[in-house]
Amino acid sequence: MTYNIGLVGCGGIAGSWINAVAAHEECQIILAYDLAADAAARRAAATGAQATDDLDALLGDERIDLVIIGTPTPSHPALVEQAARAGKHVLCEKPMALDLAQCQQMMDVCQHSGVKLAIGHSLRFWGAFLTCRQLVEAGAIGTPVSGSIDRMSTANVTEAAAAGKEQTHWRDEVANTGGKVLEGFIHELDFSRAVFGEVASVTAQVGGGQVYAGLLSPEIMQAVVGFESGALVTLRTGSTVALPTRGYWIGGTEGGLRFTEWGGPIEHYRTDFSEKRLVSAKATNAYYLELCDFLQAVEKGGEPENSPLNGKKNIALGLGIYYSFETSRRLEYRQGMPVEMPVDYQNTRW
Description:
By secondary structure, the protein is α/β, with parallel strands linked by helices. The chain is 33% helix and 28% strand. The N and C termini lie far apart (46 Å).
């Protein structure tokens, strides 16, 4: 069958979804919606779709089978609810929402409406991350028991006097994104959970933002995460001045894996190897693979790999990192959910 798609949100991420849909023989975007008419027109021109500034008209169009939502995070719950009540399957970009109560609301309305929902954690389908997961699943390193997952950027020297400049993009406001852990690093949280399983505990600290001789130190967030399997993993995100520090390694009972670039290669270590082996990462269009996985769930039933429950558990880990730091204590989890953190807790400070 052919899936007619409504594109809701025509910003930067829309380009990735346009390419993914174009690669799929059974999919086409027929309507493109954005509050900014010029953005909708530009995306529509690139796809042969019709531009619209009327969301109700898009959702009420009987030709539309599913919608792809690529709008700022605070809008996700309401847009998912509107689409679900209109009978449309929904692929919503990450992060799912700003708190756990909103995540559950999104899940409930989709279940009640009988539509599928997927949350766009594309990194698990990306190059080195996908190949690394496949190596772990194939037993290449035995059972994963430890790891270090670092998504770090290199920062410029910042004069303390220049800090706090005017915010010009919606992502500049923590209240819109939930913080860097939810906005960007949630991809790595998802990857960590895909490899190590259910979270059991989180202990976190935030550093940086200090003034030294008139210079502002960059911010860094670090968490130690315990998993139900007994694995212990360090998660770290933030920045360092000029020093590239990004990298990912996973230690197992029989060996280990390590990589620094999303496109690979992956270093594979074992005691029965005379030297490390380099494993080429599969070149993938992660968004296309996400789309295929979602459509399989639509056609055959069951949940997509990027299920709403998976999205909710990623939010639970991300918010738990902030909450652990804010309360200065270790946060315990049960079945992937924090035991004591309020369901309406949102990070608005870091």
